[in-house]
Amino acid sequence: xxxxxxxxxxxxxxxxxxxxxxxxxxxxxxxxxxxxxxxxxxxxxxxxxxxxxxxxxxxxxxxxxxxxxxxxxxxxxxxxxxxxxxxxxxxxxxxxxxxxxxxxxxxxxxxxxxxxxxxxxxxxxxxxxxxxxxxxxxxxxxxxxxxxxxxxxxxxxxxxxxxxxxxxxxxxxxxxxxxxxxxxxxxxxxxxxxxxxxxxxxxxxxxxxxxxxxxxxxxxxxxxxxxxxxxxxxxxxxxxxxxxxxxxxxxxxxxxxxxxxxxxxxxxxxxxxxxxxxxxxxxxxxxxxxxxxxxxxxxxxxxxxxxxxxxxxxxxxxxxxxxxxxxxxxxxxxxxxxxxxxxxxxxxxxxxxxxxxxxxxx
Amino acid sequence: xxxxxxxxxxxxxxxxxxxxxxxxxxxxxxxxxxxxxxxxxxxxxxxxxxxxxxxxxxxxxxxxxxxxxxxxxxxxxxxxxxxxxxxxxxxxxxxxxxxxxxxxxxxxxxxxxxxxxxxxxxxxxxxxxxxxxxxxxxxxxxxxxxxxxxxxxxxxxxxxxxxxxxxxxxxxxxxxxxxxxxxxxxxxxxxxxxxxxxxxxxxxxxxxxxxxxxxxxxxxxxxxxxxxxxxxxxxxxxxxxxxxxxxxxxxxxxxxxxxxxxxxxxxxxxxxxxxxxxxxxxxxxxxxxxxxxxxxxxxxxxxxxxxxxxxxxxxxxxxxxxxxxxxxxxxxxxxxxxxxxxxxxxxxxxxxxxxxxxxxxxxxxxxxxxxxxxxxxxxxxxxxxxxxxxxxxxxxxxxxxxxxxxxxxxxxxxxxxxx
Lengths: 362, 419
Ligand SMILES: Cc1cc2nc3c(=O)[nH]c(=O)nc-3n(C[C@H](O)[C@H](O)[C@H](O)COP(=O)(O)OP(=O)(O)OC[C@H]3O[C@@H](n4cnc5c(N)ncnc54)[C@H](O)[C@@H]3O)c2cc1C
Ligand code: SF4
Hints:
heterodimer, A: mainly alpha, Alpha-Beta Plaits, 2 domains, globular, B: alpha/beta, FAD/NAD(P)-binding domain, Enolase-like, domain 1, 3 domains, 6-stranded antiparallel beta sheet, 5-stranded parallel beta sheet, binds flavin-adenine dinucleotide, binds iron/sulfur cluster
């Protein structure tokens, strides 16, 4: 078994909220603000990507192409760095390859290719409610009416959301999505890996987490229902309200929370701020994981020495040690199953597994 | 309401305090001189190496103690009056109804001439840790104040100290008594694998050696003469030749002592209402297969639970069950359950599984499983314990040995080694 090294993590400025961490935080945050609201600032940068854009899409670059390209590059390059750091660990090996594949192919090349052949730009690795439009009436009907591929994509969306997701989560926990497929997860696991130790492990943070994430979930479920009701009544009853609601959600949750805070604050608050406090997809999968899934992290009897490596390196801020030192299994809604607690534990105490039985039997 | 005083806030004292609170409303006071809050001694090395900060190795949030009405007091207990039920911190005296001693270990000294010079450290307490930190660390990480250090004593703490110094970029000479690393405990195959691993890290492992004299320049350690006459230059000497119960302040207190504080299975000492737990304890009659003194984290934790029960007058005795332990030698994890003797004997049979340098070893005595050991292979505690307690035989384990594994998903199975 090969070990990984975290030597010097808390001595390096970049990984311990030092000056360079703040510097990067400011740059990242600034980039997101410009991206969403002041793209003209990015104009010179965007133009640099014209050649690539013409090559791939036969049209000039725009801010979203720039963003997608940066994002994919980050996942790929830092993914390779991650593979090197965790070399020898088979779980991380397969997981990271799949993550890179999903980002590079499903979330970058395929959508580009689709739009190039005049099909709707569809992301196979994103689902409602993270990709909220994928269950909005207007977007669904638009997709459905855009030809054979559109019909297929509509089915993909609905089947993945309503059927595949619960089944996969039942067997594997939310990790199948959050740390194997999802693009946000991919960035957190790769570019964010150097910042995982910054996640707040306190009980207080856990309280905030539950309040915020379930509020966001309520908001998006409410919005989706509203849009359907509205579409049923042809926009006559709640037209302007639902438009404002959708816009507000997009601004505060979609851009400000998941983008600016979620990624911009990596070097200060850790890599999974969005996934932990905000993502409604994670919230749904989490509820299922907590109550109806076979997944758990098991604790190896009495071998824990309470060292704290697991809690420190948990990107979701779970106090893993609190369970491990009592010999209890870890069953937490927020656990994304990244497996790092198990690899940093110096005593081989933790194991991610799908048990034989779910916690609550049907 | 009865008042329980606990001396020592290590794992054993703190476990006792937590269990007393779980089971009663008693007033609890924990007195300790080392640190304000309980910390994980086993994790000191990770703070030195920058894996964690001090706050991370405190297993409970700081408001945990007041929330659970566990009073903490920093201070050095100097003496006792057992007949009047008093604890003295210098001149201050505090009365108790029940007293639990959890005063831990201290490191063994070398006893070589010149040992009192500067730059010689043990590695046990926070104070030792701070001293080593100040002696070795420069203004920046990996810009150490010294370039060369020596560690003597090839046990579990010794190898940790070597890894710490090495991580800082200090060249380490590692002196051990045996011919290969920890060969008094590890079978030769495993000992050699670990030895090779240590060498591959660039550590200068010096085997079959000891120190006969320590040299100093201007009061600071500057060199060592080894038993064979070889002379080494050094700027620091780490002494990790073992630990012993920290009981010197208890001599003449009226407590019955041998190497440690003598206790029975209820963890009672010879004094009424006085109990002892953890590293400082010596069992009068240890269970079969267990030692009288077992200075490890796990026994401290188990004893803490029993002492709580015992002090509250509830039913229960200390019977720790099948021995287990674990460690890590640089990158190589090690776990053991039951007994894995080093010496070959006729009635012993070893079955070994390998995955490159990973080794899983099953030991049978008269065809009954008595020990399981993993080197680089994680072994499941409950299962190993179950098969050892049942004395499972080789035929049974032929089909069931895979249940023992606790490796992460996707790992290849170790394969039966023909030899
Ligand atoms: C570097 C290192 C690594 C280790 N790694 C492992 C490991 O991986 N696995 C393992 O099983 N074990 C390990 N151990 C051993 C393990 O840490 C000890 O067995 C365990 O901490 C003992 O706990 P304790 O509560 O009995 O005593 P201690 O932790 O020693 O606590 C005793 C406390 O009492 C205080 N005290 C003593 N006398 C007085 C007094 N008169 N007045 C007030 N306070 C007093 C001391 O200052 C101390 O804080 C390691 C030890 C060290 C030093
Ligand atoms: S890393 Fe392992 S030994 Fe350390 S606290 Fe976590 S489970 Fe326990």
